[in-house]
Design a protein that fits this description.
This protein is an alpha+beta fold. It is built from three helices and 18 strands. The radius of gyration is 46 Å and the shape is elongated.
Amino acid sequence: MPPSLLPVLVLVLAAPAAPSANGTDADLRTQIPSEEAEETHSNLTFVKQSISLIGTPSASVERNTILHSPSHVELTCNFSGDINSVRVIWKKEGEQINSSHIFINQTGNVLYTQYTLQILNSTQLGSYACVFEDAVERRGRGVFNFKVPEVHGKDKPLISYEGDSVVMICKSENSVPLTWIWFKVNETGQVPVETEMKEKYELASKYANETKLKILQLSEQDGGSYTCRAIFPLGGSEGKVDLKVLSYLVPLKPFLAIAAEVIILVTIILLYEMHTKRKQNTTEGEKEFEQIEQLKSEDSNGIENNTTRHRKI
């Protein structure tokens, strides 16, 4: 081979293959995820969720998913019907997503779309939606909600008394948080509980997915709302506990009220008896007076009659 042709041959061999005339290679690149475009994390959890809108046109289907750790997520939606004029839009919290990781395919009268992403922190949590719509209306919608595990406190308020102690408990749902933090809610917001004050607070928990805050020597100022925050790899989640601290006089109030009612009732009865006796005594006195007056009158009549008789004689 002549030396002058060697550079030309090298250029021809190094040139990339031209795409086919029907665009098949380009179509495949829009339908198959590009592994090179994704940042690889070997420790990610793989999460796959799908929503089928087949046979349910103009429907909205929602799916909730709890993520315990950073994850590689694959979301899939299927839609059937008259798909000739239907377009697919992916949204996050209502805002349209423009990503090279959105893939669309059509098989017969079924429209298929997939969105792959990595959820590595709390900002990537939230609501993702696949929307099928035409020029006139929305035809179907699938919603994927991602959030960290929930934390539960206590629905009803805890009630204790001044000088006593109380234990407040929070638990997470089948997930162990990295740490727990307690807050006291006041007028300005949440204030961290000073758990290092051992004479006032004690932290204890039997299980890793729960936390217990014990408050010693309760005072009226300890009453109020408390927040327990669990910190997970993807963010925080909170529960709430309400505490009411009562004085020991509070349980006595019903007794004192009953005692007051009894005293009032007894006083009324005594006054009524005294009034009745006084009335009876007055009535008896009047009767005696009438009897005396009657006797005097009879005696006077007797004397007058005798005097008259003597005069007649």
